[in-house]
Design brief:
The structure holds 2 protein chains of 2 kinds.
Chain A: E1 4-6, E2 10-13, E3 19-25, E4 31-38, E5 42-49, E6 56-57, E7 64-70, E8 73-78, E9 87-94, E10 103-104, E11 108-112
Parallel strand pairs in A: 2-11
Antiparallel strand pairs in A: 1-3, 3-8, 4-5, 4-9, 5-6, 7-8, 9-10, 9-11
Chain B: E1 4-6, E2 9-13, E3 18-24, E4 31-37, E5 43-50, E6 55-58, E7 61-66, E8 71-76, E9 85-92, E10 98-100, E11 104-109
Parallel strand pairs in B: 2-11
Antiparallel strand pairs in B: 1-3, 3-8, 4-5, 4-9, 6-7, 7-8, 9-10, 9-11
Classes of the chains: A mainly beta, B mainly beta.
Chain lengths: 113, 110
Amino acid sequence: DVKVTQSSRYLVKRTGEKVFLECVQDMDHENMFWYRQDPGLGLRLIYFSYDVKMKEKGDIPEGYSVSREKKERFSLILESASTNQTSMYLCASSTGTTSYEQYFGPGTRLTVT
Amino acid sequence: GEDVEQSLFLSVREGDSSVINCTYTDSSSTYLYWYKQEPGAGLQLLTYIFSNMDMKQDQRLTVLLNKKDKHLSLRIADTQTGDSAIYFCAESGGGFKTIFGAGTRLFVKA
């Protein structure tokens, strides 16, 4: 059974803290994605990676960075958390040169106070 | 840029059919998807259709595509309370990016 796991289901951080969200997939997928999900806005792509050490900006990369040192792991970093980054963060992975089917993790609900 | 629009809420009675509609703007879309998100979970691919198809049926699910109007619909026959979830319409042009709609929250009344 394919699996994408995220390090935390719920996280509460203070403004200005550095926050790490981890995502691991066990399917040997080349592509990994970070989205944020906000009510009424759907999923918005933050960053994606199509290979180890490769990354591309998505639609809303400001305030975020990513790291992909190993194929199975894709980290999202909030350098200095702000209250407007309170959201649900979803990680996904896919294989091949198309985003044909993305497999999603359960999400991390981040609250920044 | 590309956009996918769908209504935010739909309420149906158990046993009725549900129809969730979606419109998209990218004329080069290759794949069109329906994902389902149950409470507390990530998204799961429900079904998909290639842009050269008009219809796809999979058990209780029927996907209709009107490519001329860029309109996609998902029909769920005999809707059950377990179908209560958020349904996301999405499209991709075959590249890395998938564009998601805002999601339609389906309420099924017993």
